[in-house]
Amino acid sequence: MDWQDSPEQAQFRTEVADFIQARLPERYRSGDENSDETQTTGWQADRKSNDPSAKESAINWADALAEKGWIAPHWPKEYGGAGLSVMEQFIYNQEMAKADAPPVGGMGVSLLGPTMIVHGSEEQKAEHLPKILSGEVAWAQGYSEPSSGSDLASLQTRAIRDGDDFVINGQKIWTSGAQYADWLFALVRTDPEAPKHRGISFLVMDITTPGLTVRPIIDMGWQEPFNETFFEDVRVSTSNVIGEENRGWYVGMTLLDFERSGISGAIEYERTIKELIEYVNSEPENDIKTRDDFESVRHQIADRYLEVNVLFNFAFRIVSMQNSGMVPNYEASVNKMFGSETHQRLARTGTKVFGLYSNLWSEENEYAPMRSLFTRDYVRSVPHTIFSGSSEIQRNVIATRGLGLPRG
Amino acid sequence: MDLGLTEMQEMLKNGARDFLENECPEQLVRDMEEDEAGYSTSLWEKMAEQGWQGLLIPEEHGGAGFNFLDLCVLLEEFGRALVPGPFMSTVLGGAVPLIEIGSEDQKAEFLPKIASGDVIFTLALTEPSARFDEEGVQCQASVDGNNVTFNGVKLFVPDANVADYMIVAGRSEKGVTLGIVATDQDGVDVTQLQTIARDKQAEVKLNNAQGQLLGVEGEGWEALAPVIHRYTVGECAYMVGLAQMDFEISVDYAKERVQFGRPIGSFQAIQHKCADMVTDVDGSRFIMYKAAWAISTGQSDEETQMSVNMAKAWCSDATRRVVAHGQQIHGGIGFTKDYKIQLYFRRQKRAELSFGDADYHRELVAQQLGI
Ligand SMILES: Cc1cc2nc3c(=O)[nH]c(=O)nc-3n(C[C@H](O)[C@H](O)[C@H](O)COP(=O)(O)OP(=O)(O)OC[C@H]3O[C@@H](n4cnc5c(N)ncnc54)[C@H](O)[C@@H]3O)c2cc1C
After folding, report:
1. Best residue in A148, A356, A358, A391 to probe B by mutation, most B CBs within 10 Å?
2. Cα B220 from Cα A213, distance rounded (Å)
3. At the fourth CATH level, which superfamily is domain B222-368?
């Protein structure tokens, strides 16, 4: 076993780090007052921003990455990606996360593109992939419905064939970033008679198609990260089906597997812990006294640091398996579950370090320690154990798929 | 030995529950998050008619003369209904110190007005150091006869935006010194803070603020001990009620919410959470009442101190586990502003932080155990 880079890997790491250092726009640099705000809505919102400087940063960063093919480092070269090996992707993702550099291209790059590369027709790839890479088209994911969350395959949004079109009626919910998106990929029911997993199709559509309405939902942090998406007689050409009709569940599952790997959490939390330790060890220039004089708080910070190292290894294990030709099974669930729960524990520890100051929400308040990052994270990390397969679903998966226990 | 409530306490509890269900609905709680004052004057007046502000106040001063444990029964219901406004700051931060150390004149002047709901009090204790111990009191106090002048900054002062008077803790050359300060003077400058619970807490700048001396100069810290004990346990009672309600809402939801063709409550993962929640809520309730009982029955200083620290250490962590489970059981809907469960989650954090969280109290427990 070896936790160290090979010389080639070290060289690649330096290349990525140097590149980010040289090219990352000011707006995205850590410590910048904007960085916490941009974290929630990200590059995709900046791209659609009315603020010219936000828009310019988004475009400049995308252009810089595009020079290297690093908008989509995991896509094959023939589709405009960088064709990086899984280990190189791992290193790339680590360095991006260390610098808190926003990934570009949103769900188009991370989810839709890889799925389309596997299941799409050549025409579909030619039409959509270049626009994802150029940043021209942003995507949103329309899977969940009001009555179909964890039980996604129970989804009811109905698409009925009418000549060369599907006519769609129904509702999606929690559609992240749909208000900034240009296109939507959705799972819809095309055969209500078939068993629930076998009557679903994977459809893509222009989000401005008549009959399609997007309505933002305010979250408990008083922001609008997600939406309700309504379909009223929405007409979409049958040529917009990705993969085979009624096989959409399996097309969609390819995507969920992409959703569950990832190293950025471990890197991000480690950075946060280091910042916290630095903060409590320095003499704050204002009057804020932290709680590092308490044994238990010091112990908690240490616990979080251990957890982050454990988490790193969970992610690392997935990549090592793939690197040696194995197919991860329940390991991705362990990573997702442990990572999201560590995130919540870290936010909690942060709020404890600052005592009463953890009341403060606004990052601008002069009293706010570390820009109130932990207080806001305490609220904003709440859904991390819910989306992309809740912690309970992950534990079910670990128990049934991983450990072979009978299903409940 | 008995863990049940007396008949009178049952009446108080049931009466309060009925009253608050009508008078303090969720919409009021939400409206007060965005309200400048943060409380409803009509509810405040009706609470006074119920005799609640005066519950602890002796009858000769216009109150009901109940004991502290009785008040905790009421505060549990307040937590359940998430009652917004300056009740705890007035009763625990104002009436309690006046009852404990006020002169006869001061009691006669203020207690009847508190009982009738005519004045609002708060306790200006914490400072930018955010400490809860004696060292935390650095605001300057200078005493001249019965008058005291304060200079300094108080931070996280609850309900200072609407308080008529504050009990201020300052420090003179003789030590911690308390005073009753009217807020309608130039020397008192109140700046509201935006908080996680959207409650009203403030920075209060005292610039030659004038007040009347409360108790004896230099003996303020000892005098505050019973106040801090009661306020701390009061926060526990509020958390217990809040957690109980969060738990009930979550269990109801788990019974109704259907995924995979059956209620999510039929899933082991959810069932285990509900079981953890009720264990934590009940555990919190009894340890809180143990402390309330020690205070009300005048147990030894050591036993009282220890039981207060244990209650706050346990309730702070346990109720946080409860509201976190409440969020998780609700899935995505729980993260929305519109759905009620988040109201409990954010308020739990406020109460958890107030007068020291579990770490603070666990440390004191450890010290008392001689660790
Ligand atoms: C911030 C955020 C962003 C999101 N973005 C998107 C998006 O872009 N596109 C999209 O399609 N969806 C999105 N979602 C939806 C997300 O995928 C769902 O919230 C998630 O699938 C859970 O569904 P639900 O909210 O209906 O909760 P439910 O499925 O109702 O779950 C409620 C509770 O029941 C538990 N539960 C359910 N089934 C089981 C079981 N079998 N065993 C044990 N416990 C179970 C859950 O773990 C949870 O605790 C987002 C959600 C959030 C919160």
Report:
1. A356
2. 63
3. Butyryl-CoA Dehydrogenase, subunit A, domain 3 (1.20.140.10)
In this predicted structure, which of A127-141, A394-408, B140-154 has the lowest mean pLDDT?
Answer: A394-408
A195 interface with B at CB cutoff 8 Å: no
The token duo for B116 is 């009738």
With 0.90 as the threshold, say if the pTM is over it. Answer: no
Instruction: Write the class of the CATH domain B121-218.
Output: mainly beta
CATH code of the domain made up of A139-256: 2.40.110.10
Instruction: Write out pLDDT tens, residues A190-244.
Output: 999 999 999 999 999 999 999 999 999 999 999 999 999 999 999 999 999 999 9
Q: Which of A151, A287, A358 has its CB closest to that of B129? A: A287
pLDDT of residue A200: 98
Q: Tell me what percent of the residues of chain B surpass a pLDDT of 90.
A: 91
Full 3-state SS string of A343-389: HHHHHHHHHHHCHHHHHECCCCCCCCHHHHHHHHHHHHCHHHHCCCC
* Distant-in-sequence, close-in-space partners of B192: CB < 8 Å, separation ≥ 6: B161, B200, B201, B202
CATH fit for domain A263-402, picks 1.10.3720.10, 1.20.140.10, 3.40.50.300, 3.90.1150.10: 1.20.140.10
CA distance B251 to chain A (A): 16
Query: Least CB-CB distance to B331: which of A220, A288, A386?
Result: A386
Which segments of chain A belong to CATH 1.10.540? 7-104
In chain A, residues with a C-beta closer than 8 Å to the C-beta of B364 are none
